[in-house]
Structure formats: structure tokens, C-alpha cells
Amino acid sequence: MVVGPYRGLFGMPGVKGFVIAGFIGRLPMAMLGIGTVLLVSAVTGSYATAGGVSAMGSLMFAAAAPVTGRLTDRFGQSRVLVPLALLHGVALSSLLLSAHLRAPDAALYLAGMATGATAPALGPMVRARWSHVLKDKDPGKLHTAFSFESVVDETIFISGPALVSALAATVNVYAGLIAAIAFTLAGALTLASFRGTEPPVVRETGKRHGTPIAIPGVALLTVVFLGVGSVFGSIDLITVGFAEEQGHRGAAGFMLALIASGSAISGLWYGSRAWRIPLHTRFVRTLTLFALGLIPVTLMEQVRPMLVALFVAGLSISPTLITGFSLVQRLVPAGQLTEGMAWLSTAIGFGVALGSWAGGWLTDAYGAHNAYAFSFGCALLAAVVGMAGSALVRVDETGELPHGQSGGS
Length: 409
Known about the structure:
This protein is mostly helical. Helices cover 75% and strands 0% of the residues.
């Protein structure tokens, strides 16, 4: 049964609380981008400005995530989350106020950058809590927990844009981002209050470890996930262009939801299995399937067959992400786990920004159908890099580092 392995996860004390708080607090990560575009384009009449403000916010979030992760590992989640969530609320409020007052574009950009820089990266924090509460359990439970979190992410990316768009359409263009403030504060502050499942701060004795990005395996995963993020960013934008070219602009949201649905379904199945194949081998195989799954997308020229192709392409996403985060959990010292996972989120974030820019340019220049070749190329490059460097992420299932590898200096 697919559901069976997940039932045992939620009987442990405090787990339901941090899972629910993490979901609520992470929902805005799928609301901020589209919410910012809807607000800024409405008040300025410029999609270029709206896209620029949104992109700068995303880039600042990606750049700040490892710093936030390092602070969290050093001082603890609760001591970092509370001030960060409050600062984020102030920054996002300043964006709303700047838009309402028709402030110059520079003010919008600054507010957007502050919003991104202060957005709490709750995904790595929730995964770090899973690692903590399951540290003495069957290693397969952590695999199932990370699979569940991947499905949560896909659910968020399906529901977040729909929610903010509905609020903007039925209430006003400010409502979606106001809701994002409320969700962030409620989720982050509640998560901070659950001290029983918070990973303890590991006090370092002796030589201090460097940043996790100095670990060869983590560096490799970061490069791979930069390519994966480029696929995400490009395929989202290109799909919108494809739907419009085919005269079905309204179908774009459904088409993107099919990708996320395929990923969520495969994530549930992947997490329910007890795998005997080594992690590094699974990682290479999922990356290969990720690239191969995009080939049909590059060949379709009509909307209906493209629906099937996009769903199939989504099937390999969650397994790839799950395996990558699982490898980081084994490669990084316990005291740097949040920062290590944040590096993957950062790589995806930069990749999304790069992919969005390249996908938009290529769609304008060559048409959406041809632009999908860029998405396939990024996935293929990620698979090749992952295959070439697979020895760097070879770990045993007890979490020891590869032979001869250290945590950096």
C-alpha cells in the first residue's frame, strides 16, 4: 500500500504540529512571485517592472537562504525564526505601501529585495526537524518523511498561485500578499514555538567546520540543482507561452498543475518503497529519467498531447529532489544540516531565475515549441554532471561520509 508507510510518521510527539506549521508558513513561497507581479503590474501598468521586482525578490531569497541556514544551525530555529518572520512582515508591508502610494520604481525594487532577503526558508528547517526526530529510527522512515515533504512542496506550488490569484481577482490586488504576510507569521511563529522537535544547536569542539558548500558532494549537488531549477523556471514560462500560441491561454495553469500533480503522485509512490539501490545510484537514475521525460515535451505541437507529456515529465521531479536532499542529510555534519539543505534551495532559486529569463527570451525569439529544447538541455546537463560526479555523493546508508571526505575546513 502506498499510504501505509506514511501513517507511522505522525504518531510521534510534536510531529503533526511542525508539519502543519511548516505547511502554512511555506505556502507564501508559492504566493509571493505571482502576487508581486499582479500587484506591481496593476499599479504601474508595466509587466517588465513587475517581473523585475519579482525576480529581484527571488534572487535575494536564494542568496540569503544559506546565511539564514547558517544562523539557524548556530543559534537554533526559534531564535532566528521570530525576528526573521517579523522583519519579513515589515518588508512585505513596505512593498504594499510603496505600491499603494505609487512610489518610484526604485522603492518597489528595494522593497522587493528586502522581502526576498527576509523570507524564512522553512523547507530546510522542517526537513532538519524530521532528521532530528527520526535520528534513532529506521533510516527508511527518513526517506519516507522527505518524500512526504516533497509532496507537500508540490501541493504548495499547486495551491499557492491559485489562492493568490483568486484573492487578487475577487477582493483586490493587495489581498493575496496580505494573506501571505498572515501565513508567514502564523506558520513561522508557531513553528518556532514547538521547542520539543527543534534540532539542538551542536556546540563545536576542536576545529571548526567550514561551510557545507566546501564539501565536494554538496558542491556537486548544488551545480546539479542549478540545472534542475533552470528547468523549473524555463518550463513554467515557456508553457504559458505555448498555451497562448495555441490559443488556449487559460489552459496554462492546468498544464502547469499537471506537472506538479505528476511529481506529487510519484513522490508518494517513491516514499512508500523500501529501496535497496544505493542513494547515489538512485540519484543518477532519477536525473536520467528527469532528462528523458522532457523529450516528449519538445516534440508536442498541440495542447492535448502536451497535457500528457507534461504529466509524464513531472513524474521524475519528486524522486530527484527527495534523493538530493537525502544525500545532503548524509553528507553534511549534523550541526550544519539546515545550511546544507539551504544550498540546494539556493541553487534551485538561482536556476529558476536563470531559466525564467532564458525561457522568456527564447520563447520571444524562436517560439515556445522550440524553446522547450532549452529545458531539455538543462536537464540533460544536470544528468551528465550528476553521472560524472556520482563518486562524490557515494555514501553508505548509515550516513557516513564518502571515504576520504571531510566536512570542509
